[in-house]
Amino acid sequence: MRKKTEKTSNKPIIIRPQQGKQEMFLRSPADICIYGGAAGGGKTYALLLECLRHIDNKLFEAVIFRQSRPQIMSAGGLYATSQEIYPHLGASSVLTPNVQWRFQSGAKVTFAHMFYEKEKYNWQGSQIPLLMFDELVHFTESQFFYMFSRNRSTCGVRPYIRATCNPDGESWVARFIDWWIDPETGYADESRCGKLRYFIRRNNIIHWADTPQQLYEEFHLYSPEEMEEVKSVSFISAKLTDNAAMMKHDPGYIGALKAMSEFDQEQLLNGNWKIRRSAGHYFKRSKVGQMFRSTPTDVVKWVRAWDLAATAPGEMDELEGMPQAMRTNRRGDESAYTAGVLLGKRKNGRVFVADVINVRENGADVRQLILNTAASDNALYGNVTVRLPQDPGQAGKDQAQSFVRMLGGYTVTTSLESGDKVTRAEPFSSQWLAGNVDVKMADWNDDYFRQLENFPVGKLKDMVDASANAYLELENGKPEFGFSFG
Length: 486
Description:
Distance between the termini: 63 Å
Protein name: Terminase large subunit gp17-like C-terminal domain-containing protein
Number of helices: 18
Domain Terminase large subunit gp17-like C-terminal: 337-473
Number of domains: 2
InterPro entries: P-loop_NTPase (IPR027417), Phage_terminase_lsu-like_C (IPR006517), Terminase_6C (IPR035421)
Mean pLDDT: 85
Structural class: alpha/beta
CATH superfamily of the largest domain: P-loop containing nucleotide triphosphate hydrolases
Organism: Butyricicoccus pullicaecorum 1.2
CATH topology of the largest domain: Rossmann fold
Keywords: Viral release from host cell
């Protein structure tokens, strides 16, 4: 693929893939091709190049999904990278409601985000000839296969899908591409790189075969329309060493990857799909920045986040037969605790863990505890934001509003819990492992450190959840709704 245009100096600009894996990705005949592996393999650039083969078709449209709009617009992200390519080909961009590049022929390339599961329905009725996902592991399996049904075409381009990703052994993508991964090492099997396999999906189950004929026979597919249900898939691995341009222009990047934890190096430097997080990968006691006997005087923002589990010992029998609205936040787990973690943001950007509460109480006692703690925190530290989780559904919303009314006079935010616990903990974990989190000396330290070090394999995660949510709020995380009274 080679496109030329002229600068004012008449020096030609050549836009083309790099030799090797990037070229292999762009040449793949697969209906679905996933370009994945370590960081820095030139994956996003390859997606942007893929669109160029169709830009002379006035009816052509491509959509590239990222999980969130900030990922699209961040420095060095999807939009910034596209600005290095598309303007040279006469394209202009608009930024709302989605980022969209419009080429002179009328062809369009849209950058869209899909954070919440329900946002997939925003695309109901769409026809997307070229459907693309940047960081496929950030999307759920149901989001992918719903959008798969939108991969249709009336513009003359046979519909197909392209995606990129970094390794995530716990994602559905790891299962989807398992045939291309060495089961012993967790690295991509280079002998299978780029090879095609075929699947058909029935009743949410994927059936694989080495040839389409095997699936035609197994599922009695005889008409051309029925045969179209069988799709080809390929996986192409990528590493930083496959991106000669980045190695040349940013030779220090490999050093940055080597400075990460062992787990992150295996994923992002070596492309390991089988490695799993284990105890100690997210939090280590030895990584605490500094232990303080008293609270620093330079804290500029305070947040107390709660993780609610209002089921006390012996209360389980009371849950049977209760209406759902009365069972909200009662997890059915006698080991669950209610945790409240107070974090402060210091002037120098460091995080301070000032107080941790971890109790097993019934619902009424928990409500009183939260109210009393809000009074104490505000008396001691000034304006302390209280962050509370909100369960999905009307019952969760009603309960959240009830807490907000109870906490009249205090700054309160509530937030829908999205994503898994590990994903929510990662921002706080990154600060912890970088040594940017200080902790006050107190009798709760050992229990707190023990739970953090056991995460995510430990049974109890309440203090981790509360810490993660408090950190998100400190960093101006957007709540579902917020209130400030008085």
